[in-house]
Amino acid sequence: MGATLPLGDPVPRDGSLPGAVIAPATPLSAYVHIPFCRVRCGYCDFNTYTADELRGARREDYAGTLRDEIDLAARVLAPHQRPLSTVFFGGGTPTLLPARDLSGILATLQDRFGLDADAEVTVEANPDTVTPDVAAELARAGVTRLSIGMQSAVPEVLATLDRTHQPENVATAVQAARDSGLAVSVDLIYGAPGETLEQWRRSVEAALALETDHISAYALIVEDGTALERRIRRGEVPAPDDDEQAAMYEYADATFTAAGFGWYEVSNWARSPGDRSRHNLAYWRGHDWWGFGPGAHSHIGGVRFWNVRHPAAYAQRLSAGDSPGAGLEVPDETARMLERVMLRVRTVEGLPVAELAPQSRPAVAGLVADGLVDGREAVRGTIVLTRAGRLLADGVVRALTA
């Protein structure tokens, strides 16, 4: 959910979707966007708001507004009702809402849709907001997994990223989650302006020392219009270096692998297949999900739609009994093929060669020769990226869709 929304066709006021394309062919997930942050990080272009930026919306009312959209979604999907296989509370900082609000939202989802018996329910969290009481209440409500925004173990790097938590609070949050029986993931960011490989090594080693179930590591991307982009443009900090980021990725992948973690998506590693994020896998596999909250995007039966961005506009529409949808589209087969290739080749499951357009299949041999695609997997009929290929995944996608 970046700085702008795409263009699209209008969403009917009742939120109804083109009936011919709605079909319960895949599991259904829910993404719940909590758009609140204490401080806006300089690199972030997500649809988030500090207290001073809300204007016309109140954090205290947000859980009730979300329940209105949940009711609307339940009506729209009633003919094709499915229990939720995964729920993900993202942001923003979901744990800025009281745990009782998150619990209430989850209870509403369960009441309107039902949850699979083994449903995965994840909450993203800033380390400073996770206490033993918060973790325990989330676990009692049915949350199964906490994803903690560690980003770095180095204070100087955290300062460059405008992160406000203290590194030692990550371990406290992880322990609180583990004591409550929650699975735990930590997120890292590499390639911050001025970050050295040695500093990155400290963060990787600190993340492994936490003995979590899952680790994500994302290359810093400088988004247009962010405070970080303006600082780089003014020459206050250096731009991230592609070669240094590649070296950081290679180090992280080798170190995580040696510690018993396996990559299953370009930026994600898990101790075992059972520790993989099933919610994120739903995106990469093209499953259905409804995104709740301002600016949230959804994918149901081949229809893509998205909500208005600002919490005030979102609340106003729902209070009037209208859909908060800002636009929708039904991608054509060419767009679907591009998306399928782009998502599937990023995963260790890979993409069956047979799913490529016939004219694109000869490109596989060249990618194997270049060391970007695993030759043994290609012989078996699946495109799986090598470590070098993961660094050049966008180029691989272009080659396979030309």
From TrEMBL:
<protein>
    <recommendedName>
        <fullName>Heme chaperone HemW</fullName>
    </recommendedName>
</protein>
<keyword id="KW-0479">Metal-binding</keyword>
<dbReference type="InterPro" id="IPR006638">
    <property type="entry name" value="Elp3/MiaA/NifB-like_rSAM"/>
</dbReference>
<keyword id="KW-0411">Iron-sulfur</keyword>
<dbReference type="GO" id="GO:0004109">
    <property type="term" value="F:coproporphyrinogen oxidase activity"/>
</dbReference>
<comment type="similarity">
    <text>Belongs to the anaerobic coproporphyrinogen-III oxidase family. HemW subfamily.</text>
</comment>
<dbReference type="InterPro" id="IPR004559">
    <property type="entry name" value="HemW-like"/>
</dbReference>
<dbReference type="InterPro" id="IPR058240">
    <property type="entry name" value="rSAM_sf"/>
</dbReference>
<dbReference type="GO" id="GO:0046872">
    <property type="term" value="F:metal ion binding"/>
</dbReference>
<dbReference type="GO" id="GO:0006779">
    <property type="term" value="P:porphyrin-containing compound biosynthetic process"/>
</dbReference>
<dbReference type="InterPro" id="IPR034505">
    <property type="entry name" value="Coproporphyrinogen-III_oxidase"/>
</dbReference>
<keyword id="KW-0349">Heme</keyword>
<comment type="function">
    <text>Probably acts as a heme chaperone, transferring heme to an unknown acceptor. Binds one molecule of heme per monomer, possibly covalently. Binds 1 [4Fe-4S] cluster. The cluster is coordinated with 3 cysteines and an exchangeable S-adenosyl-L-methionine.</text>
</comment>
<keyword id="KW-0143">Chaperone</keyword>
<dbReference type="GO" id="GO:0005737">
    <property type="term" value="C:cytoplasm"/>
</dbReference>
<dbReference type="InterPro" id="IPR013785">
    <property type="entry name" value="Aldolase_TIM"/>
</dbReference>
<keyword id="KW-0004">4Fe-4S</keyword>
<dbReference type="Pfam" id="PF04055">
    <property type="entry name" value="Radical_SAM"/>
</dbReference>
<dbReference type="GO" id="GO:0051539">
    <property type="term" value="F:4 iron, 4 sulfur cluster binding"/>
</dbReference>
<feature type="domain" description="Radical SAM core">
    <location>
        <begin position="22"/>
        <end position="255"/>
    </location>
</feature>
<dbReference type="InterPro" id="IPR007197">
    <property type="entry name" value="rSAM"/>
</dbReference>
<keyword id="KW-0949">S-adenosyl-L-methionine</keyword>
<keyword id="KW-0963">Cytoplasm</keyword>
<keyword id="KW-0408">Iron</keyword>
